[in-house]
Amino acid sequence: MGAQIREMVLADYEAVVALWKSTPGVDIRPVTDSREGIERLLARNPGLSVVAVNDGELVGCALASHDGRRGFLQHVVVAPELRGQGLARAMIGTCLERLRQHHLGMVHLDVVVDNESAMAFWQKAGWHRVDTLTRLSLAL
Length: 140
Ligand SMILES: CC(C)(COP(=O)(O)OP(=O)(O)OC[C@H]1O[C@@H](n2cnc3c(N)ncnc32)[C@H](O)[C@@H]1OP(=O)(O)O)[C@@H](O)C(=O)NCCC(=O)NCCS
Prior knowledge:
Blueprint: E1 4-7, H1 13-21, H2 35-44, E2 50-54, E3 57-66, E4 70-78, H3 87-100, E5 106-108, H4 116-124
Parallel strand pairs: 4-5
Antiparallel strand pairs: 1-2, 2-3, 3-4
Coenzyme A (COA) binds at residues 23, 25, 76-78, 83-89, 111, 115, 117-118, 120-121, 124.
Domain N-acetyltransferase: 3-140
Organism: Caballeronia udeis
Keywords: Acyltransferase, Transferase
């Protein structure tokens, strides 16, 4: 049986974090990626984040959210043994379909600068690098 894509729920948290931790290039944040942080994300963005489940095992996830103007994708990961089967494309497609219902102009995502594989993946999927903007951040 192929993997299934479904809405992420808080009960997925431990398996999702285990997948992130086992994936080089995923930057796990202490506040926003804590259980409470993910609970807040899911509550503020109902139905937007998804997971992929194969034979009862969580093998993929994609966090999606929006602020009313822009959408965001974060922590898109597929377990190594399930890569190359269209799972990321399916998860992202589901996220984008749901984000489109919120009348947003754009969807953004961050790629760690040396994650060339991820950059190649996103560009192949039609995402473009924004060279006219520099992201500024301040810790709260
Ligand atoms: C990037 C990642 C999510 C892709 O997952 P995946 O399930 O293997 O991707 P898919 O099978 O859905 O691939 C969709 C398409 O992208 C292509 N693709 C997949 N990985 C690619 C890569 N690293 N570089 C270029 N193209 C890639 C596939 O060949 C496929 O092409 P097609 O449309 O011609 O068939 C997965 O490799 C991963 O988890 N990487 C580590 C975590 C990571 O870096 N995430 C991104 C954070 S910004």
